[in-house]
Amino acid sequence: MPVVPVADALVHYDRFDSTAPGADSRPALVLVHGTGSVGAALTWGQTVPRFADRTVLTPDLSGTERTVDGGGRLTTEGLAAQVIAVIEDAGTGPVDLLGFSMGAPVSATVAALRPDLVRRLILVAGWARTEADEYTRNHFTLWQRLGAVDPEGFGRIVAMTGFSRGYLNTIGREGFEQLVPNMPPTPGTLRHVDLDLRVDIRAMLPRVEAETLVIGCTQDATVPVELSRALHAELARTTTASYAEIDAGHVVFFEKADEFVRRVSDFTAAA
């Protein structure tokens, strides 16, 4: 498990090298997780094997259990610096960079700051500015307050809004109860939530040069699909940006894994 120092952090990441024919000629895929101290392992554990035709990097950003830092307030630019350091340490750039949820504004910032390191950019269930949407601001405020006083309540609201109603009814009560402890409100998780409340990458978006795919989730109750549409509209002003929607809740790569992988693979396969 490689480690790279960035400012006051020791950033851990996993590297999955492929033995598939032609893998060396394909750009590496970097998967950037969203909110939660469990980080990359839980977020991408089921997804990484689906991209076995190429090298995959999965960083654990500050706030996760495996990356140690000084515990200060997080910034989008600071987390972007960690992703940049991982790409440089792995020596795999330029990469195809995918950010999910909180990882979407972080990844867009990476592409803005270091266009030389990003070939294609994929932003999944992302947004540009929290303050612009009262639902989202209050949603993250509720996470923040529940996390401080009611860990079980925090886990339940995260699970309820992380998945579509249909998916939750499909997995049933036992399946839902297994979801509740997946994202405990640790100090690291609450540092992520604090950042979620302050996201504003509007100044970064005109600096993105990489061809971009924005994926919105039509049943997303965490980051409403309208925010992904707005993110795409802003990017399309200054770069080549396409948009797709998947009929799923926030954690789309669990609910609609096949469609998610197909869209990412098709987009990154293009010359």
From TrEMBL:
Signal peptide: none annotated. It comes from Streptomyces albireticuli. Keywords: Hydrolase. This is Alpha/beta hydrolase. InterPro entries: AB_hydrolase_1, AB_hydrolase_fold, AB_hydrolase_sf. GO terms for biological process: acylglycerol catabolic process. GO terms for cellular component: membrane. Residues 29-262 form the AB hydrolase-1 domain. It comes from the Bacteria. Gene3D superfamilies: alpha/beta hydrolase. GO terms for molecular function: monoacylglycerol lipase activity. PANTHER family: MONOACYLGLYCEROL LIPASE, MONOACYLGLYCEROL LIPASE ABHD6.
